[in-house]
UniProtKB/TrEMBL annotation:
Keywords: Membrane, Transmembrane, Transmembrane helix. One of its GO terms (molecular function) is endopeptidase activity. This is CAAX prenyl protease 2/Lysostaphin resistance protein A-like domain-containing protein. Residues 1-32 are annotated as: Disordered. Residues 15-25 have a biased composition (Low complexity).
Length: 267
């Protein structure tokens, strides 16, 4: 070895061999450096527009389908499903039009690992939400401890096929749509303006609870939203929060379906 020159036999100085994609060989694909996607061109106004669309479609359904005799089962089901699906679908279209698509912009990339994490956050969150629900019932009373959806279906009885449809909407469809709007679109809009994941968690949790427009249930909804938001924080993606949200909705959806068939009291 010549004094003053580095020893080429030193393994610390040997340049790594590049793999076929230009990244150092030996690294798993998920750890290899990839080019970051361009920044999306949608923000808070996109979220505001989606919320306005949700409220406007809800109002239109109520205006045209609810008569003086009160809502029918069909009217309530349409009011429960169409605005939510329309809002989520618009959010996805916005990411395709002004961004990189829902997989990149919203973190809507499914994996078995995220489903498992979502189940953990969902069932773990029940340890928080069930005691909070008991406190809520004790404070407002059993007669007042109902949801806006439960009030809309009050006095309506349907057969099992329709009750099953309502169960699927409340337990599975609504969580997907709500997570796309709040922990997806709103989350991405907030972080675009420089907020870190914890600030995004706080903002989306509060707005999720307030946007249900159920004043007395807002504190309970804040508690319910915590494990759902944490699933988004710790995975960095949307599916775990969707699964956690679905776990949270399972029991209320089942109770609502049973009530609609006359199996249990609704209120």
């Amino acid at each position: 070895m010549i004094v003053g020159q580095p020893d080429s036999s030193d393994p610390r100085l040997v340049e790594p061999v590049a793999g076929p994609d230009g990244a150092p060989a030996g690294l798993p694909p998920e750890e290899r450096a990839v080019e970051a996607p361009p920044r999306h061109r949608w923000g808070l106004w996109s979220y505001v527009g989606v919320e306005i669309l949700f409220l406007a479609s809800s109002f239109a359904i109520g205006w045209f389908l609810i008569g003086p005799e009160g809502p029918t089962a069909l009217a309530v089901i349409l009011g429960l499903s169409i605005p939510t699906i329309l809002a989520a679908g618009t959010a996805v279209l916005i990411t395709r039009w002004r961004g990189n698509g829902p997989a990149v912009d919203l973190g809507l990339r499914w994996s078995a690992a995220d489903v498992g994490r979502g189940l953990l956050f969902g069932f773990g969150g029940l340890l928080l939400s069930i005691p909070a629900s008991l406190v809520y019932v004790a404070v407002v009373g059993e007669d007042n401890a109902t949801t806006a959806v439960g009030q809309a279906f009050d006095g309506i009885e349907v057969g099992w096929p329709v009750a099953l449809l309502v169960f699927l909407l409340v337990a599975f469809v609504a969580p997907i749509c709500e997570e796309i709007v709040y922990r997806g679109l709103l989350w991405g809009a907030v972080t675009k303006h420089g907020a870190n994941r914890w600030v995004a968690f706080a903002i989306t949790t509060v707005l999720f609870a307030v946007a249900h427009l159920e004043l007395t249930r807002t504190p309970l909804l804040l508690v319910v939203a915590i494990p759902i938001g944490l699933a988004r924080v710790f995975t960095g993606r949307l599916p775990a929060g969707i699964v956690a949200h679905q776990v949270n909705n399972l029991v209320p959806a089942l109770a609502l379906a049973l009530a609609l068939t006359g199996g249990v009291p609704l209120g």
